[in-house]
Design a protein that fits this description.
CATH topology: Neuraminidase
Helix content: under 10%
Number of domains: 1
Shape: globular
Number of helices: 4
CATH class: Mainly Beta
Strand order of the largest sheet: 1-21-20-19-18
Largest sheet: 5 strands, mixed
Structural class: mainly beta
Order of helices and strands: HEEEEEEHEEEEEEHEEEEEEEEHEEEE
Length: 380
């Protein structure tokens, strides 16, 4: 058994009893309802970047902390930071009230996931790690893991700090991730991969979700792979206590629901109430020109992975509605957070797709403005 799974097993045996609040229909499905849907107005409408292009809200991650939602945008936003907060308690203030993040958040590129440890002591953020060029040190900023002690008046720190031509990053971690993803096909590890998920488990375990694996950004395959390791933070310095390793892998093509579209992992979070992982996956028409993509070209699904199934590398359970059809997101899911024992929230990253005015199918069509990002609250 892998070292990290042994640690998880020992911890669960000592501290946890099974929680069965989530309604499992059978070995393959979990039932839930859509409680609420709406839009977050990330910044003022008609905000323009330096190229005089309208800025787009593309939320790639969310975390829940003390009655607030911490949100990250995977693109830079003029006059603000890619880390924001909305008040959530009782009434949802769908306009960010706080601009968060220090210089390292501002300098990071393509933030893809955020998570908060179960005891709400630390916050972690990670970029996509999908870009590296030995001749372009500026691209190192796509390879960063950030961490911060919540409540401390200090900026986020960079894990495994690497300096190259004045650019600070976690470039050392790129080799660690590549090594963890070695296979028969990629004996030295894949040249290309894309990170899009992050989850902190009890007992100082950090999981990293991998959405794409391949040769480069144009030659890869969707993935539902999770790597991880236990970590420690000593004298404010983060480090993994052992090598990163693959701790979970699921091939969605094995799933019996043949109508599911090709999907890759876009986010995950650990639910301390129900002792499970929520996974979100997205599909996207990669063959279509980016400028011509419509709302029907994107979407996604929600899954529940119990710790038992995680330990045994069994398939996650697909979330379905009351009529037993898959809970299908019209918007592309970007991040997921736990609100309480019954509810979770998913935020969406629709790239620059605005949808359509006349909607005939709410399951696959939508309408939004560029400064907005959709959210979905799911009730179990």
């Amino acid at each position: 058994m892998q070292y990290i799974k042994l640690i998880i097993l020992i911890f669960l045996i000592i501290f946890f009893s099974c929680n069965e609040e989530i309604e499992e229909i059978d070995d393959m499905y979990v039932r839930a309802n859509i409680f609420e849907q709406g839009y977050i107005n990330c910044f003022p409408e008609k905000t323009f970047n330096k190229k005089k292009q309208a800025a787009s809200c593309e939320l790639s991650g969310v975390a829940y902390y003390r009655d607030s939602l911490f949100l990250i945008n995977d693109k830079r936003i003029p006059a603000t930071t890619p880390l924001m907060a909305c008040r959530f308690k009782i009434h949802f203030h769908n306009v960010p009230t706080d601009k968060l993040g220090g210089i390292n958040v501002l300098n990071a590129r393509k933030l893809e996931a955020i998570t908060i440890t179960p005891k709400q002591k630390y916050m972690f953020l990670i970029t996509a790690f999908d870009r590296y060029d030995n001749k372009k040190p500026k691209d190192d900023r796509y390879n960063i893991l950030l961490y911060k002690k919540l409540g401390a008046n200090k900026d986020e720190k960079i894990a495994y700090l690497t300096e190259r031509d004045g650019i600070s990053s976690s470039l050392i971690m790129r080799k660690m991730i590549r090594k963890a993803l070695r296979t028969r096909k990629f004996k030295e590890g894949p040249p290309y991969f894309k990170i899009s998920g992050l989850a902190a488990l009890p007992n100082n375990i950090l999981l990293i979700g991998v959405r794409e694996i391949g040769y480069d950004k144009d030659n890869n395959e969707y993935s539902m792979t999770i790597i991880g390791a236990s970590y420690d933070i000593v004298d404010e310095e983060f480090y993994f206590k052992e090598d990163l390793e693959v701790v979970y892998h699921f091939n969605p093509s094995r799933y019996s629901k043949k109508d599911l579209k090709p999907i890759g992992l876009t986010g995950m979070e650990y639910d301390i109430h129900n002792k499970c992982l929520y996974l979100i996956t997205a599909y996207e028409n990669e063959k279509k020109d980016e400028k011509k993509k419509t709302d029907k070209d994107i979407g996604g699904y929600l899954w529940v992975l119990s710790i038992k199934d995680f330990m045994e590398n069994r398939p996650p359970k697909l979330v379905v509605l009351e009529d037993n059809t898959p809970l299908l997101f019209a918007h592309k899911p970007g991040g997921v957070a736990i609100i309480d024992s019954d509810k979770i929230i998913v935020v969406h990253d629709d790239d620059r797709i605005e949808g359509r005015k006349n909607i005939t199918d709410k399951k696959t069509e939508f309408n939004r403005k560029l400064h907005q990002a959709a959210y979905t609250i799911i009730d179990f």
